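Cont'd.
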Amino acid sequence: MSERHAVRAEGLAKSYGDKHALDGFDLTVREGTVHGLLGPNGAGKTTAVRILSTLIGLDGGRAEVAGLDVARQAREVRARIGLTGQYAAVDEVLTGRQNLEMFGRLFHLGGRRARARAVELLEQFDLTDAADRGVGKYSGGMRRRLDLAASMILAPAVLFLDEPTTGLDPRSRGEVWASVRDLVASGTTVLLTTQYLEEADKLASRITVIDRGRAIADDTPDGLKDLVGGDRIEVVVADRAEIPGVVKTVARVCEGEPEVENEALRVHAPVTDRVSALTEVARTLQDEGVAVEDIGLRRPSLDDVFLRLTGHRTSAEPVRHAEKEAMAA
Amino acid sequence: MSALDVESATGPATAPPEHGRLFWLLADCGNIVRRGLTHYWRQPVNIAWQLGFPILSVLLYGYVFGSAMTVPGGGDYKDFLMPGMFAMTMAFGFINTATVVVYDSTKGVVDRFRSMPMSSSAVVAGRGVTDLVVACAELAIMMLTAVAMGWRPDGGWGFLAAFGLLLWLRFALIWIGVWLGLLVPNPEAAGGLFAVAFPLTMISSIFVAPQLMPEWLGWVAAWNPISSTAAAVRDLFGTPVGGGDSWVEQHALLMAGVWPVVLTAVFLPLAVRRFQRLSR
Ligand SMILES: Nc1ncnc2c1ncn2[C@@H]1O[C@H](COP(=O)(O)OP(=O)(O)O)[C@@H](O)[C@H]1O
Ligand SMILES: [Mg+2]
């Protein structure tokens, strides 16, 4: 075996009643990389992470983490993983330092080493100033960082991050991203789930796209972009009534089928002959007197990838809050 | 290269030395207890919240309504009331257990524990030990309040036995607390448990002797496990006032021992099953 795998899952299946949360899910994560698991709400990301981190059993298939079987060697797996779930799982009453010391002792480090490790991690995650404040007073970003620090106490071989930046403001999100990059630099393999295409693109060297409990693509961010084709021309109009006219123009000039985002008043289509297509569309629209808000070329985003693979946009999937709440219970 | 191989003086910690399972069960349990007690240390007002109602009741019934309260067969109402208040304090404790459990399980703390190589029984055992330690502190505060108000129990073994019986009731209620804590969907809902606990606790012999109630209600009150504990500790404190004639009241000491066994036998398996369901 030339390449070592931190995670290998084959045909994972998990059902709740007649709902298939995972339905033959495959995943391979190379050691020492950040692997993105990208999918909309309800796709099965959390279920996959919970199975791989031994929190729940599986109904079918098999999975290895750090070379150990999650079902038969759960305890050994637990000594080699870190988990940061969808909720910052830290004690709100304790201080940041007390949290890390407690988890350190529960990782069986002994009091003295747990204290020393807490000091190191507080430093590493830029929490030294807030170390002796109650976590209840932390910001969302600080809490997340503390959560990450707690997952790092034993320097896990594999770290699972389930939507680590959901609900964070852009600044805190940037802080978490920086922490994740540092972790990977120190040799940890990271499996990161996200609904943010930008996040997967920024952090991951490889991305598995998951939809309805199945992996529907597995590639590098660039590879996925190639899948969609090259650049796209994009026109944003001021008035919804203009959209049909724009579609007609774009369709005539470009070779691909134009796509319409009605709410965003946006029409876009793939182009090969970039500049001439842009000029042609711009001139035609001007001649027709269409009020154009914005026109330009853009590189394909992962959002386009998703649309291509599944036929629906990631954001089109309604966020099912009720389900999230039920799962938290 | 695996991250586990990375090791330096200041670097990440390595896996711990080998010890037996029992060693780690006790060590983990100790750490969970330490966490629970640190909560009280950092938020001492929590104890005040838990004791607020019992202490208010002691003051209200002891001073305000006290003269209007009678004990069947004569005797000082204080001698009737105080043991009842101790039993009530223990009974309300399960809400405390449930609140912490629901909080930990919905906020992901339990998931974190379960994803760690620690003993998972220690999570529950540690909770139980913490609750018993806190119960001791609560009882001590309640008893000092009672003494300040003129309550004079017998000392000696009877006193210790009474203390033990009260803790025995609290022990049984831990499992109801854990079970409910894993059952209710969110911390807000746990607040609603008080509304359930209140009547269940009140329909007992803690304030009023069952003989003074309508017949059917008196029967329910007499069979309430809290009544057995209250009546048994009244005896053990050397102030056996307000006892009734029914079989269950005549055998209060026996029932104060048996009821917690029954409660534990029912609710411990339910709690364990609920805990195992987390892995489904
Ligand atoms: N404990 C559960 N009980 C019932 N349904 C569940 C449970 N956990 C997950 N599901 C369902 O499985 C599907 C996948 O959920 P999840 O893995 O949480 O998706 P994601 O994390 O990608 O949003 C969803 O439709 C969800 O409703
Ligand atoms: Mg999820």
